[in-house]
Amino acid sequence: MEGETVCEVIQSRSHSFKAGEVVRAMTGWCTHAVVDATKVKHVETHGAPVSTALGVLGMPGFTAYGGMKVIGQPKPKETVVIAAASGPVGSLVGQIAKLAGARAVGVAGGKEKCDYVRDELGFDAVVDHRSQAFASELSSACPDGVDVYFENVGGHVWEAVSPLLNLYARVPVCGLIAQYNGPGDSPGDRLPALMSSILRRSLLLRGFINTEFLDTHFDAFKKEIGPLVASGKIKYREDVVDGLENAPEAFIGMLSGGNFGKLLVRVGR
Ligand SMILES: NC(=O)c1ccc[n+]([C@@H]2O[C@H](COP(=O)([O-])OP(=O)(O)OC[C@H]3O[C@@H](n4cnc5c(N)ncnc54)[C@H](OP(=O)(O)O)[C@@H]3O)[C@@H](O)[C@H]2O)c1
Q: What is the value of pTM for the model shown?
């Protein structure tokens, strides 16, 4: 399985890395790996734990940052709705929205995650997508409509958000996790209604993969978000599973919301 790891250099023939250094690399799911030095990065976390290089200060955090800076562009007093709000991408998206002076409304599954998003991350409101009345509860939480919807899920969450989108709303389409394992939970015949609202409300939908912004925004991300994580101003949560042998079960669980925070597998000390 592909995957990025934070790991310790045991032996190196490169001048750039010494034994004992902590680095990140695409080693895949394994306990030991031989990696070309050009593909290895030093870990810079501004004093935060090294595990953050896989979450809030790594690819997921940068995905939140790039999607918001380039596509979402939240403005003061606007309403930003964030799907999968307790996860590594969504939790930073909402905190970036708050830093921009916007109102952050999270969508999460279950009371524990919802409480965390509102009470610890400081979002203005949160709605449980497992509630029977989810669509009407989301509408009540967004009395002025939605200016930015950060899409991580698709399916029934998108269906509830799309009628609330304001004129010129922006939708960074980052992920569609409800649809990765087959057809989504929204019947295809609702697509015409969606296309019509894109047309009538001049909506800008823009998909992205975080690597698109690496050259233009990664340095700014580290400079701006790194110190905020280290000082505790930006909050994050990790869900650590011990043992490589438990990785498959943890990964499958994540696809239905079993994780709470950035899912990490600890392979060694
Ligand atoms: N475009 C890019 O470059 C890029 C980069 C990284 C990640 N992503 C995408 O960004 C999204 C968030 O990633 P993450 O790492 O922050 O994930 P995450 O929040 O740690 O885990 C995914 C969460 O999605 C929610 N979920 C899963 N199935 C769902 C369903 N059927 N309906 C509603 N919610 C569901 C669950 O939260 P609840 O229990 O709260 O429902 C689950 O915990 C994913 O779609 C991922 O693929 C994209």
A: 0.91
